[in-house]
Amino acid sequence: MVYAITAKLENAKKVLDSLQSDSLLDKQFQFKKTKTTISFPSITQIEIDGATCREVTEDFFKKTTRSLTLKESLNSVLTQIQLEKLKTAYDTVGTIAILEIDDELRIKETEIANALLKTNANIKTVLRKDGAHQGQYRTQPMKFLAGVDTRETLHNESGVRMLVDVEQVYFSPRLSTERLRIANLVRPDENIMVFFSGAAPYPAVIGKKTQARTIVGIEINPIAHKYAQETIHLNKLKNVHLFCGDVHKVLPLLLDHKHLAQDIPRNYDRIIMNLPKSAHEYLDDALIIAKKGTTIHYYDFLHEDEFDTAIERIDAACKKHGVEFKVNGIHTCGAQGIRTYRICVDVEIL
User: Fold this and answer.
1) For the CA atoms of 62, 66, 67, 70, what is the dihedral angle to 10 degrees?
2) Secondary structure of residue 153 in the 3-state scheme
3) Handedness of CA 176, 178, 179, 183 (dihedral sign)
4) SS3 track for 204-260
C-alpha cells in the first residue's frame, strides 16, 4: 500500500523533512512533480501541515533505480513470517543507523544489519536499541551490529552540523521538524532560553537560522554539554552560551551576574522546555525569567484524551506566580505509544 503526500512546491522541503525525520518516506518510489505541486511516497497515512494525504496505486509513482530494498535483500535469509515481522523503518543520525529488532528476529540481527549496509551507502554503522531511555540523562543503551564500531557521528540538520554520541547523549533526529518550527517563530533580537539543551540541537538550529540576539542553553549531562560546545564551535555561533548543570541550580547563578563573564539576560522572549516527562517540575524556573509577551514552549508526554493535563500544570504554576497566560497552540511532535504523544504547548505570558 502506498500513500501520496502532496504539497505545494513552496512547502516541499518542510514536508520532506517531516517524512524523513519520522522515517516514513517510501524509498522504493520516486517523487512525482507538477508545475505547482510535488507528491512524496509514504509508507503510511500521515497528517502533515501544508500537505494532503491519499492512498494511491503503486503505478502512481515510478520505481526508483536504486539497489534492492532491505526486505528484498533479505529474501533468502529470512522466512516469510520473519520478513513480515521485520521493521524496515530506522533512525539515521549522521552515518549511524539505529534499528529496532523484535526478540524473535534477534537471532538474525547481524544479517539484517549487514543487509542494511549494502542497501544504503550513506550508512557506515548499524546499532540496535538495547533498552529504553533511562536515567537522569535520558540516554539509551545501544548494541553494535555491523560496520564501523562507533557511537559518535556528525549529523546534518537544517544546515547545521551537530556532533553527537548516540549512546551517551539524548538526541532525536525525529524532532528536526519541531526544531525548525520553533526556529521559524523566532523574531529578530529575541533572547532565548533553552532548558535541557542536550547536545545543543535547539540552540544550534535557532542560532543558525534566525537573528536571535542571545541563546542560552542549560544541560545537566556533562558529556552532552561537551558535544554541545563542539557543535557551537563547528557552526561558528557567537550568540550561543552554554552552561552545564541542573536548571534549578544553574539558573540562580545566571541571574546573579557577578558569576558570569558574559552579559546574560535577566528575562527572555522565548523559553524552550524540551523534557517531556518532568518539564512541569521546572515551570517555576521558567516563570521567574519570563515577562509579558514571553512565549514558553512546554513539552509533555500525554495520552490524546489527557492533553488538558498540560494546560492544568501550566495554569497552576501561573496562578502561583500571579501571572496570566493564553495557549497559542498545541502541537503533536511524534507518537510515544498507543494514542500517546509528545506534545508541545505554545504558551504566551500576558
Assistant:
1) -70
2) strand
3) positive
4) HHHHHHCCCCEEEEEECCHHHHHHHHHHHHHCCCCCEEEEECCHHHHHHHHHCHHHC
CATH number of this structure's domain 2-60: 3.30.70.2580
Q: Dig out the grid coordinates for 104 from the structure.
A: 524473535
Burial class of residue 205 (count of CB atoms within 10 Å of its CB; 0-12, 13-18, 19+)? buried
Cell of 237: 555561533
- Please identify which residue in the block is written with the cell numbers 511516497: 41
- C-alpha 277/C-alpha 13 separation (Å) is 30
Sorted by sequence, the CB contacts under 8 Å of residue 63 that are 6+ apart come out as 28, 29, 30
Cell readout for 97 is: 543507523
How do strand 240-244 and strand 325-337 relate by DSSP bridges?
A: unpaired
Output the nine-digit C-alpha cell for 139: 540516554
What does the alpha-carbon distance between residue 263 and residue 241 come to, in Å, rounded to a whole number?
10
Q: Are 173 and 93 in contact (CB under 8 A)?
A: yes
In this structure, are residues 248 and 242 in contact, taking their beta carbons and an 8 Å threshold?
Answer: no
Q: What is the pLDDT of residues 295-350, one digit of tens each?
A: 999 999 999 999 999 999 999 999 999 999 999 999 999 887 788 999 999 999 99
Residue type, 148: V
CATH class of the region 168-349? alpha beta
Under a CB-based contact definition with an 8 Å cutoff, are residues 167 and 202 in contact?
no
Distance between CA atoms of residues 162 and 235, nearest Å: 8
Q: 70-150 belongs to which CATH class?
A: alpha beta
Tens-digit pLDDT profile for residues 36-57: 999 998 888 888 888 999 888 8
Q: Where in the chain is the domain with CATH 3.40.50.150?
A: 168-349
Are 342 and 303 in contact by the 8 Å Cβ rule? The answer is: no
- Angle CA(117)–CA(118)–CA(123) in degrees, nearest 5? 35
Q: Which three cell numbers stand for residue 214?
A: 542571545
Give the DSSP per-residue string, 65-94.
-SS--HHHHTTTTS-HHHHHH-----EEET
Q: Could you tell me which of 9, 345, 342 has the C-alpha nearest to residue 182?
A: 345
